[in-house]
Amino acid sequence: SSNSILYEDLIKRKNIQLKVEVPEGLEVWIDENHFKIATRNMIHNALKFTPEGGQVTTSVVKVEDHISMKIKDNGVGMDLDKIHSIMKKELQNSRSGTSGEMGTGLGLSLSLALLEKNNCDVEINSAPNRGTEIKISIPLQLKSK
């Protein structure tokens, strides 16, 4: 995908295994730009907080009336307070990545806001030193309001 090209340097420098498991021909109802920005941010975060030689996996499966997308890493993880703060879309203090990469602290909160605008549900599962898994449910059809 275009995202893996975007982060090629980071992936090479940290020797991270980026796996992408996406079936062909899936269509969802979502603003393409919103989706790109959100997933780009999430993948970048996963790469940023995964140590050298780590692994980041993006997988997509179709489940009944939605698509379930997971972005999983085996990086530094985060505690519940951090997850709650992100879910409430509070501005984060930018933490430097495992190789000192800096960010804005906007990444995940912005991503969540964009996905929610598109009727997506987002779950974050993480614990310190246990990595992070972000699960995004994307509706296959536009929900009538």
Task: Summarize the helices and strands and which ones pair or pack.
Blueprint: H1 2-6, H2 8-14, E1 17-21, H3 32-48, E2 55-63, E3 66-73, H4 80-87, H5 107-117, E4 121-126, E5 132-139
Parallel strand pairs: 1-2
Antiparallel strand pairs: 2-3, 3-5, 4-5
Q: What does the model show?
A:
- The protein has five helices and five strands.
- With 145 residues, it is of the alpha+beta class.
- The protein has a five-stranded mixed beta sheet with strand order 1-2-3-5-4.
- It is globular.
- The termini are far apart.
- The mean pLDDT is 88.
Mean pLDDT, all residues: 88
Number of helices: 5
**Side-by-side strand order of the widest sheet:** 1-2-3-5-4
> What low-confidence regions span 5 or more consecutive residues with pLDDT below 50?
none
Shape: globular
Supply database-style keywords.
alpha+beta; 5 helices; five-stranded mixed beta sheet; 145 residues; Heat Shock Protein 90
Task: Give a short synopsis of this structure.
This protein is α+β, with helices and mostly antiparallel strands.
